[in-house]
Specification:
288 residues, alpha/beta, Oxidized Rhodanese, domain 1, 2 domains, 9 strands, 33% helix
């Protein structure tokens, strides 16, 4: 384990490329690629990696929600993931969707999970091996989880509203213009139907990308503490809710706060601004 990773509060959840290279043929490890760009996996992926599509595989196809326990077990089984399998997630966009998939796995208690520091971008930049071969991993049995533990990791609208009303800590990880209300979507992304711009009253702005280096790796623990504790005033004992647009960018910040810095109560409000900005009479602040 490199010295940067060993300094984090929970170093067991992050690996570097050298560690992964040594474990590519480990039968107890399953590498999972999860991207925004759904074509990337077919263009080349880490040898042995399976593809989990956040839209198709993690989300319920009718209700705006995640798969239930039966769907999660089936997803794992068809990807050769057993309850004791260590799953290593990686992807594009500095691991947005890798952290999102990691987060969903935590809803079902699969804690044998890690994220590849730097994700797909750093792996490619370093000339690490890629392949177009899709491996069919042996079928396994994954017991259906007793339930989905949303309470520990996830906030719904009503909970986010009560959190705001209580004056508790909220982190808006969107771009500055999204936070101010000047725009309702990310730069260079389509407007996705949000009717109002702005932010949740009392939330502090800290774009997710501040936690990442130019090479897509996470910043050091010291650098992260300077941002979240030093600038935002967050305390390790605080009850914190992070949000963005649909929960993908905020899952990155959730991972940073909970695992790299060791904050004890962090939840991801995945309804985020596409829900809050459309909810009738939801309170909104603008700052431009």
């Amino acid at each position: 384990m490199n010295t940067k990773i060993s300094a984090y509060a929970h170093p067991e959840v992050l690996v570097d490329a050298d560690w992964l290279l040594e474990h590519l043929n480990d039968p107890n490890v399953r590498v999972v690629e999860s991207n925004e760009d759904l074509l990337l996996y077919d263009m080349g992926h880490i040898p042995g990696a399976v593809h989990i599509d956040w839209r198709r595989d993690l989300n319920d196809q009718t209700v705006r929600d995640y798969v239930g326990p039966e769907g999660f077990a089936a997803l794992c089984e068809r990807n050769g993931i057993g309850p004791e399998t260590t799953v290593v997630f990686y992807g594009d966009k500095s691991n947005w969707w890798a952290c999102y998939a990691f987060w969903v796995f935590q809803l079902f208690g699969h804690d044998k999970a890690k994220v590849l520091d730097g994700g797909r971008d750093k792996w490619e930049e370093e000339g690490r091996p890629l392949t177009r071969e899709v491996v069919a991993h042996p079928a396994v049995t994954y017991p259906v989880p007793a339930g989905r533990n949303d309470a520990a990791h996830r906030a719904y609208f009503q909970q986010a509203l009560e959190h705001m009303q209580a004056g508790k800590k909220m982190v808006d990880v969107r771009s500055p213009k999204e936070f101010s209300g000047e725009t309702t979507h990310m730069p260079e992304y389509p407007q996705e139907g949000v009717l109002r711009g702005g932010h949740i009253p009392g939330a502090k702005s800290c774009p997710w990308a501040r936690a990442a280096n130019a090479d897509k790796t996470f910043k050091t623990r010291e650098e992260l503490e300077a941002i979240y504790a030093g600038e935002l005033g967050l305390n390790v004992e605080d009850d914190i809710v992070a949000y963005c647009r649909i929960g993908e960018r905020s899952s990155h910040t959730w991972f940073v706060l909970k695992y790299l810095l060791g904050y004890k109560q962090v939840r991801n409000y995945d309804g985020s601004w596409t829900e809050w900005g459309n909810m009738v009479r939801s309170p909104i602040e603008k700052s431009f």
